[in-house]
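Components:
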Amino acid sequence: MAQNNEIPYKIYLEESEMPKAWYNVRADMKNKPAPLLNPGTLQPMTAEELSGVFCEELVKQELDNDTPFVEIPQEIRDFYKMYRPSPLVRAYCLEKQLGTPAKIYYKFEGNNTSGSHKLNSAIAQAYYAKNQGLKGVTTETGAGQWGTALSMACAYLGLDCKVYMVKVSYEQKPFRREVMRTYGAQVTPSPSETTEVGRRILAAHPGTTGSLGCAISEAVEDAVTHEGYRYVLGSVLNQVLLHQSVIGLETKIALDKYGIKPDMIIGCAGGGSNLGGLISPFMGEKLRGEADYDIVAVEPASCPSLTRGVYAYDFCDTGMVCPLAKMYTLGSNFIPAPNHAGGLRYHGMSSILSQLYHDGYMRAVSVPQTAVFEAAEQFARVEGILPAPESSHAIRVAIDEALKCKETGEEKTIVFGLTGTGYFDLVAYQKFHDGQMDDYIPTDDELKTYFAQLPKVE
Amino acid sequence: MAQNNEIPYKIYLEESEMPKAWYNVRADMKNKPAPLLNPGTLQPMTAEELSGVFCEELVKQELDNDTPFVEIPQEIRDFYKMYRPSPLVRAYCLEKQLGTPAKIYYKFEGNNTSGSHKLNSAIAQAYYAKNQGLKGVTTETGAGQWGTALSMACAYLGLDCKVYMVKVSYEQKPFRREVMRTYGAQVTPSPSETTEVGRRILAAHPGTTGSLGCAISEAVEDAVTHEGYRYVLGSVLNQVLLHQSVIGLETKIALDKYGIKPDMIIGCAGGGSNLGGLISPFMGEKLRGEADYDIVAVEPASCPSLTRGVYAYDFCDTGMVCPLAKMYTLGSNFIPAPNHAGGLRYHGMSSILSQLYHDGYMRAVSVPQTAVFEAAEQFARVEGILPAPESSHAIRVAIDEALKCKETGEEKTIVFGLTGTGYFDLVAYQKFHDGQMDDYIPTDDELKTYFAQLPKVE
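Structure:
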């Protein structure tokens, strides 16, 4: 193994070293993720049914549990070259401040204008839509990262882009809309009066701050009721984890280059796009019995789908217009307290990650909001990057684990995903500085009422 | 020369290739920049006089017109490794969209939390202050980039940081303050009631939106009236251009690595920190007669110090508490229309660049605001980076020059400085989208009234 002093602060791959294919972790899973179900018949969704909502090529990727590697089309690889490879950073300064013997690395996905890893899948989904001759795509966005990413991808390819943005984020992040507008997207706060499902949700919950689940329902309705449009989604789906595997693949190539073997891999988890992408190739090794890693999902205590949810079939959206997915869920009606990690406010979790968690291949922890912002500020000051609240969940646990190493003397190698930047999260930072941050955590009784509303699928 | 298809989208240097010394372009200038004058005696400022305001090591750098290379202290080089090298990007997508035979490169300095190149000098100045055993530093900030950069550097080193922020930027960029607060800085909108000079300016110009010149006066007063504090400045000074030479040095190493020789080097110019840093090593070759380059400064038409100012001794600040510098100036009382490139709203220009411009080693153009934002949006959509309004001045001219090449068929190699990102400039983008952008340009008569107020120095 290379010595510490040979490892640079940032490892950048050469263009020639960048992955040419995505890795499909499903191919190595003995227990495949459960299929999506048709909400009417409760039978597995067929390719034909799915292609009313999604592009054909993406349907193929969604249903393919067997092909281990999927070639990345050249046009997508060219787009990746504009902002990738992302650096794998050795957190020398953080290690020093913590006084830990642990070695900490983070894969930083924030060095692009969308501010996060979301662009990796946005360009892929927009590319396939364009290739199919579509006019445009619709989507939802929580923190605004996915919507920004999609608007960038659509501007690049000349596609229409309609974004339903969770109302609480729309209000907390007034400038996100302006970035999307710079890229030519049409942005609507959700729930809205634009769609039937939006009107229904507003009538039932006047004054709601919205949720990803609501916004998904609206975007899907918009797509299926307009000729030449399809719906695209920034997380949860199998196809998204496939595209996001580029994060993990780059990370692994960079680590291998320097002979580094991580002990622990940590990622924040909302719908699972970043975590799933980051861990994929490592999880593949673990599934094939070639290596072992301690893989940790970190979620907000206010929206604890893995740590406190149930593993069951549930709707992906609040409006119940989408297929059902088997996943760890808090119930599709669950609307979390308005925390400031909009990208993690989703009631469910990727079916792939849910299955892997269920089968014991990874563990999960939940962290309260204030502790997350303490970690964010500490990290910003020593590592010079203002992290997104979402990403800061992983920072919190990475710091906690590094401090444990300080006590035990273990020289663990910790890798975590730093998914994005917090430039659009300064309302949240302000609340933190002003001591006005809310650490609300749902009670067991509250959760029970949501669980009771889960659809009955035997 | 390497073939186009061998040149990656982004050229990153290895850590081992990063510059170990800054380059001092003054060493190669036959006509040295004119010295700073004591505002009382009109005699050149001595090191002793300057060290009441600036740290000792920085005074030395400020006055040193002869040493060509100044070693970068290891601690600064370590800090640089956290966010440098910055990529030199080949603008393949922009070239394609323009249909130009020109080859366009940009040195992108925005991939750090301050959002610009300002961090290069901030860490250097903070380091020398710390080394001298000071408690803290005071400064001004226009767009907020310098203030953010300085607060990051101070947080890293554990120094106090007081920032006077031009009022128009403070109001247009509410979140900038929050970032600086995350890094522990104290931010005051300028002009303020905190200082004597601030109170004087407010009395004379009630309702003023402020200017860099005012904010400098306040920061200097704050430093000299508080024990253990010194003033630091993000632009204009010789020392700043010295530190910023890291931009040009990295650019040159990256170009040399691929055998690329630029024909034209373009940078936006406010006080000159980015332009001076970017062009330094190229200018050195030009001064030594080893190579020729078309070097272009781009300034806002609303604040045209090089293109319409006079070359004369003037105060660096509005409050006239600072030394006088010989420079192209619009007069220290000039307050530009509230344009959205806060970092370019300075009445004067670096003495080094003024001398080089005066001696015919570079040229200057000015561009109106709306045209700049058109270029910004075009660039954002094809290159995937949301540029700062300041940087977009250079983009405008790079695009114009590339379009000229399209007409003439010339395959010029154009390098420009992309100094930063526009995440905190979305009020400006919104005005642009809403068609409410102001293109006010000062009249000749207006300028004459300012020129008439210049200090009399023979």
